[in-house]
């Protein structure tokens, strides 16, 4: 059965570091930390790689969440991919632990740091 958990989050850390620039495109690495409140409660750390230039930007990231989801405590990893066409967040298969072992699904980030997790356990 598919369930939906909604939450909000705040950014506790956003530390970009430029790593390379060539032919007008810059690569950067960003370390991020978040705190979630709501049906998803806990923290996460994110490792993000970005590429940007005057006409487009894209990123890939892995986010490790140590949270409770609808009261179930555990952890899992979200795989982010984003470019000018949109953002995709998928739970990395096999990454769930604790009471979240076996979790699968997707997530969405909305305006004002809203977070919606659509999942199966």
UniProtKB/TrEMBL annotation:
SUPFAM superfamilies hit by this protein: SO1590-like
Pfam families: DUF3224
InterPro entries assigned to the protein according to its UniProt record, in alphabetical order: DUF3224, SO1590-like_sf
Matching Gene3D superfamilies: SO1590-like
Protein name: DUF3224 domain-containing protein
Organism, scientific name: Amycolatopsis heterodermiae
């Amino acid at each position: 059965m598919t369930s939906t958990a909604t939450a909000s989050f705040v950014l506790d850390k956003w530390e970009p570091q430029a790593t390379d620039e060539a032919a007008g495109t810059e690569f950067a690495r960003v370390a991020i930390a978040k705190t979630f409140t709501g049906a998803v409660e806990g923290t996460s750390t994110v490792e993000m790689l970005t590429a940007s230039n005057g006409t487009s930007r894209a990123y890939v990231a892995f986010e490790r969440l140590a949270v409770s989801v609808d009261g179930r405590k555990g952890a899992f990893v979200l795989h982010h991919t984003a470019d000018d066409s949109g953002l995709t967040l998928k739970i990395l298969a096999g990454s769930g632990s604790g009471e979240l072992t076996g979790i699968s699904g997707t997530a969405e980030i909305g305006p004002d740091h809203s977070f919606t997790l659509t999942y199966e356990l």
